């Protein structure tokens, strides 16, 4: 097993090392401490490899975006003027980057500030809502001679 590179945060063990740790523990019955000593890694790494059902996968850390600096001002403008165009918003907040990227970001944020459309249809999944008409006083419903005349709801 390769040792951890110096000063590298977020180091992930390889798939082969993950499989080897699990094999040594399950098939050969070695303890976590013995595996860590044999492979020259930390016991926490061994414990993590044994606890995870999925093999390790590298995930890149998110980097700060240039739009994060102006996003509070974008949101302030959208709360006051929800239909303001992205081009005008870019001018008002002083955006100097790519306008197409700015438009894409505003398109993702804008629905939070738009008012509900009054003509949108209200739909309920089956079995989630019920409607009924209640008649007071109870009406008499004519059923015909075969059923004994009129019927009254109880």
Automatic annotation (TrEMBL):
Keywords for the protein's UniProt record, in alphabetical order: Plasmid
Origin superkingdom: Bacteria
Cited PANTHER family: TRANSPOSASE RV3428C-RELATED
Entry protein name: Transposase IS30-like HTH domain-containing protein
Organism expressing this protein natively: Mycolicibacterium chubuense (strain NBB4)
């Amino acid at each position: 097993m390769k040792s951890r590179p110096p000063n590298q945060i977020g180091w992930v063990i390889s798939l082969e090392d993950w499989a080897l740790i699990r094999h040594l523990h399950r098939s050969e019955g070695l303890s976590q401490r013995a595996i860590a000593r044999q492979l020259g890694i930390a016991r926490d790494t061994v414990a993590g490899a044994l606890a995870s059902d999925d093999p390790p996968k590298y995930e890149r850390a998110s980097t700060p975006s240039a739009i994060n600096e102006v996003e509070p001002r974008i949101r302030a403008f959208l709360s006051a003027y929800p239909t303001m165009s992205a081009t005008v918003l870019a001018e008002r907040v002083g955006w100097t980057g790519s306008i197409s990227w700015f438009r894409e970001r505003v398109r993702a944020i804008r629905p939070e500030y738009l008012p509900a459309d009054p003509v949108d249809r209200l739909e309920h999944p089956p079995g989630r809502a019920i409607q009924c008409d209640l008649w007071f006083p109870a009406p008499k419903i004519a059923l015909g001679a075969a059923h004994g005349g009129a019927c009254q709801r109880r």
